[in-house]
Batch of 4 targets.
Target 1
Amino acid sequence: MAEIQLHNTLSGKVEPFVPQKAGEVRMYTCGPTVYDYAHIGNFRTFVFQDLLRRFLKLRGLKLNHVMNLTDVDDRIIANAAAAGVGIREYTEKFVQAFFHDCKALSVEAPEHWVRATDNIDSMVKLIERLQKKSFTYDSEGSIYYRISKFPNYGKLSKIDVAGIQAGARVDNDRYEKESARDFALWKAPKPGEHFWDTEIGKGRPGWHIECSAMAMKYLGDTLDIHTGGIDLAFPHHENEIAQSEGATGKPFARYWLHAEHLLVEGEKMSKSLGNFFTLRDLFAKGYKPSALRFALASVPYRKQLNFTFDGLQSAASSVDRLRNFADRLKQTKFPAGQQKGMAARIAKAAGEFDAGLSDDLNTARALAAIFDLLREGNIAIDKGEFRQGDVAAVQKLLAAFDAVFAVMEDNDGEKLRALGYGTADSGPDDAEIEKLVEERNPAKKRRDFATSDRLRKELTDRGILLEDMKDGTVRWKRK
Ligand SMILES: [Zn+2]
């Protein structure tokens, strides 16, 4: 197996990945702010970190992975107050939606989901530690972090801190991206809005302190990997480093991994351009979860991903090809023995698949290894050269592939129904089924497997199972 190499934003280099404790990975991912549905740009990052954790697990590492739910945020508190409900009540709908979306995209649950509202104590304690070391100052009931006290500020994002104005401060969670500012650790209460009454006064935590406190509470002072979208590198992650390292004097995270932006049809996604999509928007249009996951996974995480509907279609057909290939292997009885050279060919694909993912999670390279083998395998099968003795090795590689990419199981219909889509379609009637079966027969006769598989799939997706009989006839039944 190849040595795992990851790009570390901190060093700006691709480095060998070696966890602190052999065999174990402590990883933190900045989760969603639960005041709305997550969009496909968010899910690009969540699919990336899922691929990463799945690959590390495939390589035998034990994961201790924390993802947070930011349920304390300026907008959440203001919206909850405006709606006259508590924070938990206001965010619950979006929390559940996020969990359902993750399930639909086969994004595994981390070992710990943590919520800001459950960890206010840890945040207060961390702020007290920073107070004792003079990293903070008070102003109008809020507590700020004094950036000039932390000489390494800017080391992650390489932002130029020379221009910091002494005492210039910001207490919004979102502020302009170009300049460093003293940021709020703790914010004074606003009239009519929720606050916590604590040892450091009444108020609420800032966004940045949430992640520092929760990451260290569950993973210790130094994490192996911290992931997030590239837009979080500054100021959010820079501020996390300043807070955690200011308090502990130890490195906060050893490897920082950031996923690049997602564009839609070449443009920045925005509500005003009408190219803003949540998962639900796409599922309502009839796109499948597996196709979306494949599309998001297929571009290496450090490259910008240009999401297009053509790309989504071709992702869907790639998934179909994979599933059809797996079905062929499972359902066909090949002649006994092994095809000359095939074992070596499969081993080469397995090596290249592992080398691709080890190469800073180069998913495009890993996929190319699988699809090259798939194409050659299909040709061998078509020519009648493929042998039963090679089936297990190909299946083993496909299983390893799917442990990371998670698109092989034919469960899109089930997932969509669970989200309330696709229930209206009660399936085709008998005449329509017969028509599609008739259409498929000539394709089958001329060994046009692409067409016959596509028609079979079309029927399977609509709940109809086909069985090709030995005498050339076709039986069908409803699932
Ligand atoms: Zn965070």
Target 2
Amino acid sequence: MNTPVDVLIIGAGASGAAVAWSLADTRMRIVCLEQGDWVKSTEFPSNGRDWEARQFDDFSTSPNRRRNAADYPINDDDSPIKVVNFNGVGGGTILYAGHFPRLHPSDFRVRTLDGIADDWPVDYPTLEPWFALNDRMMGIASLAGDPAYPPKDAVLPPLPLGRTGTTLGRAMNRLGWHWWAADSAMATRDYEGRARCINLGHCIAGCAQGAKASTDLTYWPQAIRQRVELRTRCRVREIGVDERGMASGAVYFDADGVEHFQPAEIVILACNGVGTPRILLNSVSGRFPNGLANSSGLVGRNLMFHPYASIRGWFDDPLDGHRGPHIGTWSQQFYETDGSRGFVRGYTYQFVRGQGPVVTAMTGMATGRIPWGDGHHDAYRQLFDRSAGMVAICEDLPEEHNTVTLDPSLKDAHGIPAPKITYRLGENSRRMLEHAVARGVEILRAAGARDIVSEAPLPNAGWHLLGTARMGRDPARSVVNEWGRSHDVKNLFVVDGSVFVTSGGVNPTSTIQALALYVADCIKQRLSNLFD
Ligand SMILES: Cc1cc2nc3c(=O)[nH]c(=O)nc-3n(C[C@H](O)[C@H](O)[C@H](O)COP(=O)(O)OP(=O)(O)OC[C@H]3O[C@@H](n4cnc5c(N)ncnc54)[C@H](O)[C@@H]3O)c2cc1C
Ligand code: SF4
């Protein structure tokens, strides 16, 4: 048996890294188990000319397509939105686009404001110091003064607007709608050992330059210097419980497939909104027959993605093409509830650049814009470097029938039952997507696009995995309390996106990490009487 530790963290992604770094200053013995490995920057597709092709292969965003040793299969046949992720040190931040908005103050109070779902047990002012600390740790580029948010400081200068930002920004000015430089997790100047962004523009294929703030570059080196032990290629099967009903540690398989038990005083789950309920549901015992921390029956329920709409147009003049971070500006014009729109809550537009050469060719052929034979090359030239548009990221409401459960037959390489996703697009989301497409077309027309296409919901866009172990004060209606501790098991915590009560209409990682830092601080403040 392994030597007992004070804190066992499971998952080394966005939240696992933040909680490990924060707890490191207690000098407790901390071990993190991560099923994936470190990713070397020399291995990123962006080093080679086949960077686009590899995004359909070993660097696909889909674990079911990638099938690397670190991946586990996910049955998402019963969902119009498919799960995408990355398993390894850094988790999803290895592949993420680095778009880094915070939830808005209103997102924490939707029951009070709009009579839907539930209010969060924490609010924006409580999290504000942790948002700010996380912005410094990750090195966030932004432009202070965004009227859509309470005041906040900029850590690094914003990304350049480029031709795309300028073209779409002018259109927004014509319409009189809000837009602003996006908060982005890209170093716009050299920062804390990270080289500045050189606009390679392959962020979702990993950033070989090291400019994008993935947690293998931000939190982890500092946590490891403070003696946190990060054990890679260790896949957790289940959390053990002792005779008092407390978490006793975790059963895991090492790189050679050998089973171990790691005993611990405190267990912290940071495996994201699919990986965390999977482990809890796999942790069945006489005392917890329906899975650990599941007396409410809510583990795995209320799964929220963010349904996405994509609206893209082609322009006569060349734009920036695909180079540079994909998203440089945003609009929060349609974020808050407006009863006249026919849906509650709202969405963010992320304005996006063009597509790479191969994807331009593939979509051009698939949509009939590029013919074979005469005119083939001319048609391609009319598309390449001439497209821009936006995606709308829509607030997804929590609905108990949207679930992560255990698949009855599908298993991973270690024989551990795999997750199964059951998800239906809600009527509110459907109306919101329609609205977002209609307004997006208006924006692109105002910008001078000659040809516009849209798609909603985007099928391969299940990158935000939220709500499956929600936080709350009432043990009957939530899995963890207001500081991330399981209502049922007092030394068990959850810090990833599973704890979200509602999804907001923005990308979640900034808020996930702020919550992880907040939970770590709550643990530190209560160390002397943590389990009273
Ligand atoms: C292509 C893509 C683009 C994205 N773009 C954005 C964006 O622009 N902005 C944004 O805010 N978010 C974005 N995201 C989402 C973002 O990556 C996630 O919100 C974030 O990483 C979630 O953090 P987490 O700590 O909850 O989980 P993760 O970062 O997913 O980390 C979970 C870790 O747990 C490990 N794990 C899981 N199960 C086990 C187990 N049984 N044993 C051991 N280890 C385990 C996994 O290997 C993984 O490393 C994107 C994601 C993808 C895939
Ligand atoms: S655009 Fe910048 S952040 Fe993105 S991959 Fe290139 S260097 Fe990295």
Target 3
Amino acid sequence: MSDKPIYVTQPYLPPLEEFLPYLEQIWQSRQLTNGGPFHKQLEEALCEYLGVEHLALFANGTLALVTALQALRITGEVITTPYSFVATAHSLLWNGIRPVFVDIDPVTLNMDPSKIEAAITPLTTAILPVHCYGNPCELDSIQTIADSYNLKVVYDAAHAFGVKVLNRSILQHGDLSILSFHATKVFTTFEGGAIVCPDAKTKQHIDNLKNFGFVNETTVVAPGINGKMSEFGAALGLLQLKHVDQALARRREIDRDYRKQLAGIPGVVCMERGNQTHDNHAYFPILITPEYKLSRDELYERMRRRGIFGRRYFYPLISNFPMYRGFPSAQHSNLSVATAISEQIICLPIYPNLSGTEQRRVCEVIATAPLEGR
Ligand SMILES: Cc1ncc(COP(=O)(O)O)c(C=O)c1O
């Protein structure tokens, strides 16, 4: 059996010769950044592909999050989930906002809307939920609460590229949604991200903010940041878009095969997908419950010894990191579901180039562990 390491993900890169003509154009135009032709084309192409009206590209998803909060002038306290990548909460601290963590739903692993109201104080200005693993949040319940308390909603949709609910883009919900095009995501521009916004005026404001606040050569209207995507990233994005449907179809097959091959192993629970009508199979999370012979960490280490690098997304919880753990909302008693799930989760390798043989190797290590032990 091959010992080639299998990582949790691997970026999908189209054939290099398809990328070279884009590079030639960049060499000819000498325009490397600052809203060049590829940047403009990718914004248009993504709006069409994703089914949204307005989108502003960014250098990465974290800058998109930080800027989205700035654009809406969010202050005070924001209700969010501890079960996410740390950038979700960091974007609040970078804006001088206090995150208030609420627990997650044990099925969707997204923010539990029934916990939101109790966390609202006079300082609350917004809700920052995450469509974790691309599974939709409870969009209507969250919006109803936001409307009754006059709160903004910013969705961290870093995992939700291409996800639709009732055939409508999930990115059309809330006041703003952000995407990440990091190398680990289903659609990548090397590094990259975007803010999806509802109207041209908001996009213009966001475009100004991502370019230091400039509105013309000599006028700066806000303390903006450098959040611009380069022409290289935008070019890769345009090329990726030509291949993305094929890449998503392969992910779908891998998801289906994992469910078949892992079915019936006691203590291995494949996470149910949500109510999306279009899925992206960005992750393949499993829960290791007490019926399994090994603990989650024992299985994780056993996989690593056999060259399979699953990831414990999301462990530790954000609320356990030193800059958050002192907040009252970060206490374990407030986050019992998130705490339990973070101790059971492993995300298995899933990416378009994962071969059938490699996938069987992953499943075999999981299936034989209860027989062989550690
Ligand atoms: C949920 C979530 N939010 C935000 C980010 C930050 O995106 P980026 O790495 O593009 O800055 C990521 C991942 O990287 C993420 O998984």
Target 4
Amino acid sequence: MHPKPKLKPARAHFSSGPCAKRPGYNLEALQNAPLGRSHRSSIGKKRLQEAIEKTKKILGLPADYLLGIVPASDTGAFEMAMWNLLGERPVDVIYFEAFGKGWADDIQKQLKINNVTIHDADYGFLPDLRKVNFDHDVVFTWNGTTSGVKVPNGDFIPGDRKGLTICDATSAVFAMEVPWAKIDVATFSWQKVLGGEAAHGVIILSPRAVERIENYSPSRPLPKIFRLKEGNKLMSEIFEGSTINTPSMLCNEDYLDALDWADKIGGLPALIKRSENNLKAIEEFVARRSWVQFLAGDPAIRSNTSVCLIVDLQPDQLKQLVKLLETEEVAYDIASYRDAPGGLRFWCGATVEKEDLEIAMQWLEWAYHEVK
Ligand SMILES: Cc1ncc(COP(=O)(O)O)c(C=O)c1O
């Protein structure tokens, strides 16, 4: 007998994007948003600049790295990077799930880069990173949101590489240690680890990435929302809060609120700890059950944000389980990504509370036995 749990999670929000808002989130916190004001007014620009500076501080970016707010979420930021930078030399692409595969496809079929080497792996695994050629540009995803696999650290990236490392870090930043000296370009979006609003992307550039932009002009046309230079000079004002086109000042205010929360609880180390503890809550649950396991079997590469589980159920039973937990209002949006192996995915980023996950696991146990 598996009795129905009595307690429900205070917040049943386990979606992997948009992710849970920060604990204690309240729209009141957005009261100072400069709504109806130009983003180029002094107040508008100041708020955007604040978002840039606070992000740099919390992430511990090196002083000579640039950070800009750009259009179209993480996809926009990452495409912008690829379209501006790639083609100068051969490209190695590392991918191990749907989003990374999407970048590989774009590099080959849209950008039509000729000399591309693919390093791929099935869901749940990482390819052999020792085979990657860092004389080439290297495109990869730090955390595979759809497979629950992350690269373990930056040790596979040489400090003296000749190519650039271009990293989609959207479900990693603010929850995992990113060794910035090994990264030339990183991108992310606000709705992921800090539970911000979806709209804008963030692009981070190392001095070597800036040098590439200024010294290499790809032959392909670049739409205005991708353009980062005028003549042969980087448009540095983008990285000081003068965005390419109109941003949402409301989304920016919401992001500032998330950054303030992150700062108050202890910054990056506290965010990482919260996320790792969330993963631990699920690991303790899985360790004592035979009917559920991690898609990423190896703990060294197991994501602490997008945690993917395989459950011993038929596809229709799995659907019933997901529906049941949603109807009971104890776990929302936990079905695995559409292209990933059938299973469950619980977001364990810093804005999720460990107690809520622990309670959700009790409900998962109950629901499993209900549908089995
Ligand atoms: C690794 C990764 N890359 C890219 C994306 C697309 O992000 P966005 O919707 O912010 O463009 C996602 C979204 O979940 C993701 O997880």
